[in-house]
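Thread: "does anyone have the structure for this chain?"

Original post by V.I.:
We have the sequence but no experimental structure in hand. Need at least a predicted one for the grant figures.
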Amino acid sequence: MKRILLSCVVLLIISCSSESQEYILIQNTTTRTPFISHSFPYFIGYFYEGSDKNYHYFVEKWKFQEDNYFKLSTDALFLNEVHMYGDKQIKVNAFQTEKGEEFGKTSSYKIYYEKL
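Reply from O.Q.:
Generated one for you, C-alpha cells below.
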C-alpha cells in the first residue's frame, strides 16, 4: 500500500513539473539563430510545440540532459503552418533535407520540416 501511495506521489510531482516549463525568450533573431545544427549523438532535435497570440514555442530535446525550452515572437518568426500551443509537436530542422519543406523564416534564416 505504501508503494502505491509513493508511486502516486512521484507521478504527481513529475506531471506537475513537466507542465510548467519556463521558455526563454529569444529576442534578437536577426543576428543569430536558436536552431543550431548539432552533430552530438545525444541530440534528438528541435520541436515546434505550438503558438499563442504572441509567441511560437519550441523545445530542443536531448537524450541524457535536460531539454531547453525557448520562444520566439510571432512578429519575428513567420510560420507557414501555425498550431495552437499544446496541440501537437512538429520536428523542425535548421537545414533543408531531401524531403524537407520550409516551415518558417525570419529576416536572416529559415527552418524546415519533413511533411509526412
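V.I.: this helps a lot. The chain has one domain: 22-114.
O.Q.: and The helical segments are 2-19.
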